[in-house]
Amino acid sequence: MTEVEPPTVTELNKTFYIPHHAVLKADSTSTPLRVVMDASSHVPGKMSLNQALYSGPKLQRDLVEILINFGLHKYVMLTDIRQMFRMIQVEPRQRQYQRILWRPHPDSPITDYQLNVLVFGFTSSPFLAIRTLLYLADKYKDFPVASQILRTQTFVDDFTFGNDDLDMIENMRDQLIGLLSKGKFELRKWASNTRSLLDGFPEEHIQNIDFSFDSESNVSLKILGLKWSPVKDQFFFTFKNFESKCTKRTMLSELARTFDPMGILTPITFHTKILIQRLWTLGLGWDEIPPKDLVDKWSHFKGDLTVLSSFALPRHIDFRDTYSCHLIGFCDASIEGTCTVTYLRIEYRSSAVKAHFLLAKSKVAPSQSVSLPRLELDAAVLLSKLLKYVTEVLKDKICLADIFAFSDSSVALSWIKNSPHLWKTYVANRVAFIQERVPPNKWHHLPINRLTRWKLLVRMLTDFWKRWKTEYLHTLTQRSKWHFPDKSTPRIGDMVLIKSDNEPPLEWALGRITDLNYGTDGIARVASVRIAKGILRMPLVKLCPLPTY
């Protein structure tokens, strides 16, 4: 930023002053206080700066493709560029369109400044930033591995790369550092599922918390965000509690803050899409309370989020010593909408078989009435897109033995397996679209309603924990329920659960009483309990004897 003189009257049409304000993000790991430049602001009848700028062609890689590739390696690393935009200078003649008014202190005079680097919030900034990285990859040929990372495994300023060989990934890491140093870029927030790969980095350059795949500029705004735990090497979701009043404004605001690029939460987010559709069709005002049925569904959605606290998805898909790999997709539809999901089925030479989740998508049905067979055909269209996309992503990395596409609609399958010219326009166009992406002989019939099955599983899970809490848990701490000959004192040799305030009941340690310590009054209050890791001395109030019959 450089201080400049105010423009003269003749220079006013060749300059632009950017409105700006501060945003405080207490959970940001780098810069909790940020200045936001509003290049879309304009006076009535005039263009904004963003309207006058070209956005440039899309250069950034698809995030879903990056996440799929992220799961294909045993050893992985993540990092990002420190203050990427501020490391890239703008051509001097263009800086006059990046002026601001600023004063370092409320008592100081307002001064004109000119920004010399890329500005976050400009339409052209993402293109220019990524183009700069690609320029480094093209210019420095002596970093071939790092150049490939910049071209294929970069999402704006984040890098994800991996390998099944530890020495190779160390070489990738060192080349990436060397190549980016040519452009004066510094890498921070290193994370890996293998601690030895982080040796040698200063502690402040290592990210010791779970890695979020949200854009950092939006991470504090998300109520539901995909994260990766380097220690457990698992994907999981975090969510923020929200207790705002149930209105159209608050519901749309909260629903828009879900970050699930791979569709892992499709069984939950599908119902949120239906809520959004209903809210718009009702024509409610922004601050009106929706009908009771929508409020109940909203409460049910918030209840579903609590289930996610224990959900985790393994990151790594192991391809070592494989015999065959099959790509499998399912599609289904109801009057409410369509959904699809894809899996990778791997058979190993040891005869073991594993199925790995890849992607899922859903789409609500149009507000106009559409027959169920046509909705089933639309589901097949969605699945064909997904299968085509996954095969393109995996074609240079995995040899797929075959592809299987399943639908529970006999009518839709009869359309797909015949020539498009036999059907009317609506069906013919979609059948032709499907057949271009997935051959008819890959489609198979599977009579299962998977939307209903998901609802059943959620209900079973909810009812189980409800009954656990109301019918059984409280009996563990009631002495009158212990089945001992002596109603007041447990005996040596009894099996017990050791209560822990920090763990759910199903994870409490199991042990056997080996000794009882009696007080001067002849009453035992402490017991020695043998567990898998040794012997613990625990007060009897912390022990839950298991019933004997």
Summarize the structure.
This protein has helices at 49-52, 63-70, 125-139, 144-152, 166-181, 248-255, 266-282, 292-307, 372-394, 410-416, 425-437, 450-472; strands at 2-3, 20-24, 33-37, 75-81, 99-102, 111-114, 154-155, 158-163, 187-192, 211-212, 224-229, 234-239, 258-259, 312-314, 322-334, 337-348, 353-364, 402-407, 443-445, 495-498, 509-518, 524-531, 534-539, 543-545.
> What proportion of the residues form beta strands (DSSP E)?
15-25%
Mean pLDDT: 83
Task: Please tell me the total number of domains.
Answer: 4
Helical coverage, percent range: 25-40%
Shape: globular
What oligomeric state do the depicted chains represent?
Answer: single chain
Report how far apart the termini are. Answer: 80 Å
**Rg of Cα set:** 30 Å
Q: Structural class of the helices, strands and pairings?
A: alpha+beta
Count of DSSP H/I helices: 12
What this model shows, in words?
The structure is a single chain. Helices cover 29% and strands 25% of the residues. The protein is α+β, with helices and mostly antiparallel strands and 549 residues long. It has 4 domains: 2-209, no CATH class; 221-312, no CATH class; 318-446, Nucleotidyltransferase, domain 5 (2-Layer Sandwich); 478-545, SH3 type barrels. The strands form 6 sheets. Strands 10, 11, 12, 13 and 14 form a 5-stranded mixed beta sheet that branches. Strands 17-16-15-18-19 form a 5-stranded mixed beta sheet. α6 runs antiparallel to α7, α7 runs antiparallel to α8 and α9 packs parallel to α11 (425-437). The protein is globular. The model is unreliable at 215-224 and 479-485 (pLDDT under 50).
